[in-house]
């Protein structure tokens, strides 16, 4: 009976499925996605401050694959909710700040999981 692989976290599991044993490729992906998890919150906050729905849509589109590969549906949902809120103009600063906090939390958690793989 084959041994069940042991994963450190969900990110490890997702990347392991994708790379099919290629540890060099996995290391490269960890590096790329670590950079994304650092950049996304900064870019997101800037776009929120500017109330830039088009820029937010572009940032969201840029990271669609990231959401899928790392199983970050919750991040995709926050982007969708934020865009919808901005487009409907039904918000105050507290609502927008909460979106920024959610994105920061998701990205920080994911970054910690990625760092466990380095």
The N- to C-terminal Cα distance equals: 30 Å
Query: What's the level 1 CATH class?
Result: Mainly Alpha
> Could you describe the largest sheet, including whether it forms a barrel?
none
Low-pLDDT runs of 5+ residues are none
Helix content: over 70%
- Helix/strand-derived category reads mainly alpha
Helix-strand sequence: HHHHHH
What fraction of the residues are assigned to beta strands by DSSP?
under 5%
Indicate the CATH architecture.
Answer: Up-down Bundle
Outline type = elongated
The number of distinct β-strands equals 0
Query: Which fold name fills CATH's third level, the topology?
Result: Four Helix Bundle (Hemerythrin (Met), subunit A)
Tell me the number of helical segments per DSSP (H or I, 4 or more residues long).
6
Structural domain tally: 1
What do the pLDDT scores average to?
A: 93
- From the alpha-carbon coordinates, what is the Rg to the nearest angstrom? 16 Å
């Amino acid at each position: 009976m084959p041994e069940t692989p042991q994963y450190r976290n969900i990110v490890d599991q997702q990347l392991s499925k994708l790379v099919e044993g290629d540890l060099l490729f996995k290391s490269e992906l960890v590096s790329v996605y670590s950079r994304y998890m650092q950049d996304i919150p900064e870019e997101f906050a800037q776009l929120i401050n500017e109330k830039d729905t088009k820029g937010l849509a572009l940032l969201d589109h840029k990271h669609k694959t990231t959401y899928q590969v790392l199983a970050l549906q919750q991040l995709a949902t926050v982007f969708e909710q934020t865009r919808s809120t901005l487009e409907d103009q039904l918000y105050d600063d507290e609502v927008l700040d909460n979106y920024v906090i959610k994105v920061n939390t998701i990205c920080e958690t994911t970054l910690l999981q990625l760092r466990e793989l380095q």
